[in-house]
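Researcher: I've got a protein sequence and the SMILES for 2-acetamido-2-deoxy-beta-D-glucopyranose. Could you write out the 3D structure of the bound complex as structure tokens? I'd like something to compare against our soaking experiments later this week.
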Amino acid sequence: MIGFSRLSLIAAVATVSAQLQQPLFIPSEHVLETEHTGSKPLVDTESLQARITTENLFKRADALYDIAKSSEEHFNHPTRVIGSEGHRKTLEYVASEIEKLGDYYKFSTQPFPAVMGQVFQSRLVLGHSVPESAYPMSLTPPTSGKEPVYADLVLVGNVGCEASDYPEDVSGKIAFIRRGTCSFGAKSELAGAAGAVAAVIYNSEAGGLSGTLGTPSPNHVATFGLSGKEAEPVVEKLKAGDVVDSIAFIDSVVNTINTTNIIIQTVEGDPDNCVMVGGHSDSVSDGPGINDDGSGSLTLLEVATQLTHYSVKNCVRFAWWAGEEEGLLGSDYYVATLPDEENMKIRLFMDYDMMGSPNFAYQVYNATNAVNPTGSEQLRDLYVDWYTSKGLNYTFIPFDGRSDYDAFIRNGIPGGGIATGAEGIKTKEEELMFGGKAGDWYDPCYHQLCDDIGNVNATAWLVNTQLVAHSVATFAASFEGFPKREAAKAASVYEEETLYHGRYLVR
Ligand SMILES: *[C@@H]1O[C@H](CO)[C@@H](O)[C@H](O)[C@H]1NC(C)=O
Ligand SMILES: *[C@@H]1O[C@H](CO)[C@@H](O)[C@H](O)[C@H]1NC(C)=O
Ligand SMILES: *[C@@H]1O[C@H](CO)[C@@H](O)[C@H](O)[C@H]1NC(C)=O
Ligand SMILES: *[C@@H]1O[C@H](CO)[C@@H](O)[C@H](O)[C@H]1NC(C)=O
Ligand SMILES: [Zn+2]
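Model: Sure. Here is the predicted complex with 2-acetamido-2-deoxy-beta-D-glucopyranose in place.
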């Protein structure tokens, strides 16, 4: 059984003050000129990097931790989850820091509705056993009346991706479905449409199964994930025709709140050729999120601040996404509402999420032109070349949809980024490459209360912020040698292969 503490739901609308609202995509008539004629020197990577200091970064981290504490009244601990006071104040902090930069940037907010789920209590009993690995899917609806349902388990045919896989007698019962092919959300929906009162999706691979149902559907039923190991004896019983009477109970809510992205763009620079860079402004509800993604958000704020000493040739657009932790909501919304013409102006998107994990590795997303929009690989190589030039080691990590770059690469925009590791385990080899401790998580406080100021490695954060400055300076000055944009394109190629959407497994 999983016990979640009952958090008070905050209906507060997280928007920054209304006078800051401006048109969203920064229409070009607001742009004064594309060739710089002022007195500032053209941005140069070495001098921009030289302006990055650990002191400035940690000053900002201190401010962010204080902001996270403003949620204590409702959550009993610091957090910057969307809908919380801590998140609202994070947005205000970003807005007020940008305001200090005068008219170097145009500021805009993009409010959007965000679906949020919370599970307060859950319980699954299969026959006479209580499986340890049973875990409610994110965004699951509750069982009927938020009460336990008592029903037999019914084995669903194949992998439960077709209506015909659901036998008639699943109606009023609990559907038992194997993982595979289609999304967890699709299975839950089909189970609901067939009249099931709950669903259990069991893993076809080793380990437990925690994922998300994704966009709510009226047909979704209360859904658990279960390890393949614990499912196996149950499947055998069902195949032998034995009855497995069960209890499913989920007390949860799924509701919609308002939150907002913040987007800024240099007034100067060619508005038809933008380099875009983003991090996420929100944390999970369990903690203050100073590494995830306070580090990336503050890195962007510091680079945006230092950039104002220079002129730029290409436009630079920074984004602070909201709702990343609920499933990349802000970046999805942004890209989905981008007209094709605007999509084409974004030459590339760089994602900066978790820049200073305490047990870090220098990780570069293995984005290649073979499977991602052309240009992604050139960006990957920019990071590789920089680490190499500094005599630092790096590793490639999968570019598999776990952060805000996802919507961009699905829609034809080249993307990439760097990270320092979340719940993955550092190898012996990586200990030799980066220091730290093999066998531990890269970030032992990932998504926990202890993701505070002490959870950011100063060296890694400084190094990576310098690299972010390098990436921004390089493309702000020139796109020479960087591939021209290909047409905005629909997502299907990537969609079929993506296992993750944000931190959650979707299939
Ligand atoms: C969200 O914003 C919309 C439009 O401003 C408003 O109609 C709606 O009531 C808001 N929802 C919540 C939950 O505050
Ligand atoms: C990077 O991705 C390419 C495919 O796009 C693959 O061939 C290569 O093995 C990957 N490298 C690593 C180190 O994962
Ligand atoms: C890079 O990794 C190697 C081991 O593969 C190690 O000997 C070397 O010291 C590392 N370099 C740095 C700068 O940490
Ligand atoms: C940051 O990481 C480096 C390399 O692993 C280590 O030497 C240093 O002590 C770490 N700093 C902190 C504050 O933990
Ligand atoms: Zn993150």
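Model: Residues 110 and 255 are 20 Å apart (CA to CA). Residues 358, 434-436, 457-459 surround 2-acetamido-2-deoxy-beta-D-glucopyranose (ligand 4) (CB under 6 Å).
Researcher: Great, I'll pass this along to the crystallography team.
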